[in-house]
Amino acid sequence: MPDTRPSDPRTMTLEAFADTVLPGEKRSPDDRAIAGAAPGGGAVAAGAIELLRTPATGIADGLDDYADLLTKHALGYAAEHGLQLDETVPPFVALPFEHRTALVQALTAPGHPEKPFWVLLALFSYMAFDSAAHLNTRQALASGHPGLTAMGVSTPDADGLWRFAEHSYGRRLSDVHPDTDHSTGSLA
Amino acid sequence: MTSVEKTDVLVIGSGFGGAIPAYHLAAGGARVVVLERGPWLSSEEMDHDFLLGSSYTRAFDFVVGDGMSVLGGNCVGGGSVVNFAAMPRAPRFVFERRGSVNRRMWPAAIDRDTLDPWYDRVAEALPVTTQEWGTVPYAGGLWAAACHHAGRTANPVPSAVDLDKCVNCNWMMSGCRFDAKRSLLLNYLPAAVAHGARIRPLHEVQRLERTDDGGYRVHYTVVDAEDYRVHTGEGAIDAKIVVLAAGAGATPVILQRSQPDLGAMPHAVGRYFSGNGERLNTAVVNEDRVRDVLGLARGDGRAYEGYQIGRGPCVASWDRLDGSLPEYSRYSLEQLYFPPGLGTILAQVPGAPRPSWFGAAKKEMLRRWRSWLIIFTMIEDDNEGVFGPPPPRGNANRVSQQMLGHGTISYHPTANTQRAWAESDADVKSILERDGLAEVAPWTNDLVGAYTVHPLASCRIGDDPATSALDDRHELRGHPGVFVTDGSAVPGALTVNPAMTIAALAERAVPGIVRAARERGVDVVYGAPAPDGATSGRRATGAQAAELMNR
User: Where is the Glucose-methanol-choline oxidoreductase N-terminal domain positioned along the sequence (chain B) (predicted)?
Assistant: First the structure.
């Protein structure tokens, strides 16, 4: 499960990015990185920081650069939109959620020169929630992983493999195309 | 270099395009080596696990380009291991397509009638079977019922799945743990090995050069088994014949990188790439309406909630595969399961302002994941893709230890392609939003461009040297003894899943390769039966094979 200790500014910045992609509820009333824009655990609770720090992603060594660049963009965004930022937290964390969203939209939009860079960060933030790619799937489900649980991913059999004995409505539900070659199943 | 290994035939890649020639040539008596850049996974290694480093990331590659991303196999068995085993034959009109060249793009020697016996050979070998309604999973049943409600037809899709073994786990993209999917690991490849072919996994071919005796030297690097960014060695093999089947996202790159040694490539190498016109729409199903309007019930109080259950695509609507319709307006609409991870992020929230691939509304959509239904559209695109200068090695600059890289393909859809996507999107919407059954939105192209799991046509066959890299026997123009037999040889989008057509073309290419090998002094004959010894397919293709051998 995610580390809930107070985070350093760079980690807070990355948490705020992941929370913008798939938002969740605050870990505590004074949680600033998580904006609290949606009920239930979001990408951060799902383990986004743990996944981003996994060497297999290929971006683990560049996370400080990501955080620093996001800080720079947040300052630029705030200046452009005349926003006064709370200086007790990192600039991206200080942005209200709708402005975090607008900035992530801009960074990942076609034509942005850094788009591939930010799409990668979004992708792995996402994968923490929808596939728990830093965890064994069976164990993630057993421990109540917020993303897989929210999605309703079913649990496997005792041997860790999925099987669905009940899988079909068991009847014909449409006419087939009149040109079907019934010996091959393809169109004639 | 002190010594270079020698063989008669060097096959690059072990998917449909590589495994089929490897088997026939080995069975015919040639010395065959197969180089495969991915790992050789056993059934026990095919995990039900999304953990990075499990078979889910070991077995395929996701290459992001400019305007197009390509998902392809990266393991022994290639696409056959990670695909969803849908094996329809291409409709008759496909072979008459004109496309962006504005003349028939397929070679005159190939149409549906001439290809049907080769399709039969593949169907016998895997085997490919029809599916019955009684075993179609819930998602396919729902799609069929929705089509019927809209006055359409829908077909169970022919498939290379042994339903007696299938448990409907929907983990096909990680390989089949139960040997239910009839991948090449179960037929052509073991048969090739039995006849002496040597398969070398984790060998990534970088380039070819010509040898003094008219053959080719194939240079490879050895890939680390865990971190594909790391190469642990290199070597070269001399061969009299080279069969390139690295996939449509990699074959042209190897040829591009070989150009300084081999000389100029045909103009069409690395051009005319097609994403098979693919596009996806995600529907979020209204369970109550599915029960009330379509009368569907699972018997446990649920109407559907069956997205996770099944085995890839099982039902397609082929009403628009009508040869009398104009080109670019023909497409199929196929139910599909796509696992979380790479695909989920691209789904957009129906009805929400764009972009809607992230945020609170998307998270809410994910909470209804069990009620998702994905419809996979295959339209006729315009072969718009072009490959840029090759990366230093491989076909992409790898980002992650496995799975993810940035490639050099550029794809900017023409008005024809965009119109066809829009028409098919509207059609899916009209079928699934009818009477409130679901809400539908297409995947966004903003993040990674268009998206294909069936890359085609980057090195295609044809009669016109100006627009095709290969003659109709799959030999590379100007480079005798080099054959291309994978999806890159297919001239254009097929409007259906292409594996069956790639495999049939590979079967058809074998007699020409055998002839070329014999001309270079290789003692090889043509005429092996199916991998399990069946011979009816061989009899049906006999006359065409003789003609291809003697032309």
Answer: 68-271
